[in-house]
């Protein structure tokens, strides 16, 4: 198996997982708009994926999910979406790290 084929396969897996993460994050924001409008405003839900989005507010959502503050929420659907977003973020981040390590291995070690 060539290094190029390995990189291409890892790249496809990483792209699929990142797109799954973004799609689930979009559905989380839609659920959040209905069940917790105050949190939706605090994380800049309307402008989250726009170029004018407020990064500090977006990071607030990251910390909210990372610290698992959603466990005290009253809506089980919202809690399930938060758990799924958290798991997919970890999975997508891991695949991206593996992809970049594989680039290093293929490029510098000649595998």
TrEMBL record:
GO cellular component terms, semicolon-separated: plasma membrane
UniProt keyword RNA-binding present: no
Keyword Amino-acid biosynthesis on entry: no
InterPro entries: Universal_stress_protein_B
Pfam families named in the record: UspB
Main location: membrane
Membrane topology annotation: Multi-pass membrane protein
Keywords: Cell inner membrane, Cell membrane, Membrane, Transmembrane, Transmembrane helix
Compartment(s) of residence: Cell inner membrane
Regions that span the bilayer: 6-23, 88-109
Family: Belongs to the universal stress protein B family.
Protein name: Universal stress protein B
Organism: Photobacterium chitinilyticum
Upper lineage: Bacteria, Pseudomonadati, Pseudomonadota, Gammaproteobacteria, Vibrionales
């Amino acid at each position: 198996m060539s290094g190029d084929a390995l990189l291409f396969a890892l790249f496809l897996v990483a792209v699929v997982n990142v797109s799954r993460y973004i799609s689930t994050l979009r559905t989380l924001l839609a659920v959040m708009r209905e069940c917790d409008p105050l949190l939706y405003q605090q994380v800049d839900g309307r402008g989250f994926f726009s170029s004018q989005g407020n990064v500090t507010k977006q990071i607030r959502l990251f910390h909210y999910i990372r610290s698992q503050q959603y466990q005290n929420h009253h809506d089980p659907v919202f809690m399930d979406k938060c758990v799924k977003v958290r798991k997919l973020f970890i999975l997508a981040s891991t695949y991206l790290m593996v992809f970049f390590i594989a680039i290093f291995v293929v490029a510098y070690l000649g595998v």
